[in-house]
Design brief:
The complex is a heterodimer of chains A (about 250) and B (about 325). Chain A is of the alpha/beta class and about 250 residues long. Chain A is built from nine helices and eleven strands. Chain A is globular. Classes of the chains: A alpha/beta (about 250), B mainly alpha (about 325).
Chain lengths: ~250, ~325
């Protein structure tokens, strides 16, 4: 089967520092693929290269059967490769609904309209409302994003990626800084999204990763050390030593 | 549909102001004071320019310190063809939109490679280049300016007539304000305002912040040019001084004073700025000494200028209205 997202020998250097070391990933359609690794392993840098915000020094990115290495971040977004941010990146002055509708419209290239209100868009609004409901934010739809509590801002971050009705989601630590209850809620949300979207999940919450992921790639010092199912990861001696050594899984 | 909330002072008052402005020529005519028509025409024209600037500055977050350039270009789009005997308003308008649009496209494309302070300086530099270019054109009056020998003629209507000019300025301002109210909530306006808040995210959801900002800059420049076209007809004169950097500064002050990023802010700001200037000038020749501190005070008091103050007034009144029945119930 053709890969949904594939990288070939991605390399990213900052001076002498090798942040991404010949990473070749192969993510299958419908899969939930997690990337784990200690702090500084280069996980966000990897996501930034997949989303197009960073250009790798070497290597290629294939998405949906096309080489997207030369495409900019907005072009990749319109092709259906959407991301969320580890550090919440929302439009603070807009309501939750406005944030999501804007994301839904943008992906369809419908932002160049100068007269009718954005919220009247008959396609984007339902898509946005569905995404907000999926993220569990329906009760806050009218609230300004800047006034949301931390956990709700993280939920909006997800809702915005979902509203664009993407083919592929790049989720950069969706549970970062969340309380246990909030993480549990997001885990359930992601379980609901699984199979509907192909997802690459970067996450520190090991309980979530091991209960959700089909396959896991362990990133250490920018190198993809091992890729396998959660069971294989648990039993892999080297992975245990490097990464899981102290953790009980 | 967006509906106007007329109980909100920040909406009701500007609409009353529009109605009042429409009545000005008739009142001035009845009182035999034609000066008031031309004075308020000037306010309307600067309100158009400020509304244009607000699209770039308020919605887009682009601090253009060179918008007077478009005011000047619009003026010369009347004066230069008139100098060569062309009095067709359609030619003036087409030339104005073309020159200002292309000018804004070129300046925007270069300036938007920078941001923050550098953007302010580059837009200022372009405006200064335009200023000195016109000063150097001795055959067109140089720094003395150029009288408009034939005002813009649109069929039977001649903008040289104070009443026609006033009506045109009022109409353009009303349409521009209406459009800005629609645009603020339309996809383009939302995306533009989104780009001001978070350009990175705008790109990540599949748009290009820079392209949105460039489009806003071009529309803004062209609309500001129309204000210049009207200004040249009002004064029957085009002068490089309308391109001076102080004029760019005054436009920014009008927008900030009225309420940056709001729909009616530029109108309120232009009325307050030019009205206050006129009143204070009548009181003392050292009017700047009063005017300056007042502007500083306004800047300190409210982030959203006069519109922001009106909104707070509305909130205060609502809060009182909610408390009052509760109190009277207590007495009963």
């Amino acid at each position: 089967m053709m890969a949904a997202l594939q990288t070939e020998g991605l390399v990213k250097r900052y001076g002498a520092l090798l942040v991404t070391d010949h990473v070749s990933l192969d993510i299958r359609p419908g899969e939930l693929h997690a990337v784990i690794g200690p702090n500084g392993a280069g996980k966000t840098t990897l996501i930034n290269q997949l989303s197009g915000e960073l250009q790798p020094n070497e290597g290629r990115v294939h998405f949906d059967g096309h080489d997207v290495s030369a495409l900019s971040v907005d072009q990749r977004a319109r092709a259906g490769l959407l991301r969320s941010y580890q550090i919440t990146s929302i439009f603070e002055e807009f309501s939750v609904l406005e944030n999501a509708v804007l994301a839904a419209l943008a992906a369809k290239r419908h932002a160049w309209r100068f007269w009718r209100p954005m919220l009247d868009d008959s396609a984007a609004r339902p898509a946005a409302q569905e995404a907000i409901a999926a993220a569990g934010l329906s009760a806050q739809a009218g609230v300004a994003a800047g006034e949301l509590a931390y956990g709700q801002r993280r939920q909006l971050e997800l809702a915005m990626a979902l509203a664009a009705q993407p083919k592929f989601l790049l989720l950069d630590e969706p549970m970062a800084g969340m309380s246990v209850q909030e993480s549990t809620a997001v885990t359930e949300l992601l379980r609901g999204l699984k199979r509907r979207y192909t997802i690459l999940l970067v996450e520190h919450d090991m309980d979530a990763v091991f209960s959700l992921a089909d396959r896991i790639t362990v990133l250490v010092y920018g190198r993809a050390m091992f890729t396998g199912t959660p069971d294989e990861i648990r039993e892999h001696p080297e992975v245990r030593a490097v990464y899981l050594g102290e953790e009980t899984v | 549909m967006t509906t106007l909330n007329l109980t909100r002072p920040a909406t009701a008052l500007p609409l009353l102001l529009f109605a009042g402005l429409a009545a000005v020529p008739f009142i001035a005519g009845a009182l035999g004071q034609p000066f008031w028509t031309s004075f308020f025409a000037r306010i309307l024209i600067y309100a158009i320019a400020a509304t244009a600037l607000n699209l770039a500055l308020g919605y887009g977050g682009l601090v253009s310190f060179g918008h007077a350039l478009f005011l000047g270009l619009g003026s010369y789009a009347v004066a230069l063809p008139a100098f060569h005997g062309v009095d067709s308003g359609w030619v003036h308008l087409a030339l104005c939109l073309l020159v200002c649009g292309v000018g804004a496209l070129a300046i925007g494309a270069i300036s938007l490679r920078t941001s923050g302070m550098a953007f302010i300086m580059i837009t200022l530099a372009f405006a200064q280049m335009g200023y000195f270019l016109l000063v150097s054109l001795k055959q067109y009056g140089g720094d003395d300016g150029l009288p408009v020998s034939a005002t813009s003629r649109f069929g039977p209507l001649n903008l040289g007539s104070p009443l026609v000019l006033y009506g045109a300025a009022w109409g353009v301002l009303a349409l521009a304000t209406w459009w800005m109210a629609r645009l603020r909530r339309a996809p383009f306006g939302m995306a533009l305002r989104g780009a001001r808040q978070n350009a990175r995210r705008i790109n990540a959801i599949g748009l290009q912040a820079q392209r949105l900002q460039l489009a806003a800059f071009v529309i803004s420049g062209a609309l500001c040019g129309v204000a210049g076209l009207l200004l040249a007809n009002l004064n029957a004169f085009a002068s490089p001084s309308s391109m001076a950097w102080t004029v760019s500064g005054e436009l920014i002050v009008m927008v900030v004073l009225g309420g940056i990023g709001t729909v009616f802010g530029p109108l309120i700001g232009a009325v307050a700025f030019l009205g206050l200037e006129e009143v204070l000038k009548g009181m003392t020749e050292h009017w700047m000494a009063i005017f300056g501190p007042l502007i500083v005070l306004m800047a300190l008091v409210g982030r959203h200028g006069i519109i922001g103050l009106l909104d707070r007034l509305g909130a205060w009144k609502r809060a009182r209205a909610e408390v009052a029945p509760a109190l009277s119930e207590g007495h009963a």
